[in-house]
């Protein structure tokens, strides 16, 4: 196994990368699907910071490469603004 790196990805309703009008229970259900997508791509979701009312999310993950994080997002149809190694 390669060394895992820490990534931060961002989402914002204003740029279309966070689902508009989603409720906290809906987001919790969606996040479960995202965690399954992460597992399929070898990504480890560590923590998510979400402002549902503000339409923003910041996700911390471990992965071998940022492309794996991007693929996990694609599996659930969730665009992102940025994925940054931190």
TrEMBL record:
Gene3D superfamilies in UniProt: ORF SCO4226, nickel-binding ferredoxin-like monomer
Top-level taxon of the source organism: Bacteria
Protein name: DUF4242 domain-containing protein
Provenance organism: Amphritea atlantica
């Amino acid at each position: 196994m390669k060394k895992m790196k820490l990534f931060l990805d961002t989402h914002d309703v204003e740029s279309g990368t966070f689902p508009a009008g989603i409720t906290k229970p809906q987001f919790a259900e969606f996040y479960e699907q995202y965690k399954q997508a992460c597992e399929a791509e070898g990504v480890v979701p560590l923590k998510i910071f979400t402002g549902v009312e503000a339409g923003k999310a910041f996700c911390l993950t471990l992965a071998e490469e940022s492309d794996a994080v991007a693929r996990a997002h694609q599996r659930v149809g969730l665009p992102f603004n940025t994925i940054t190694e931190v």
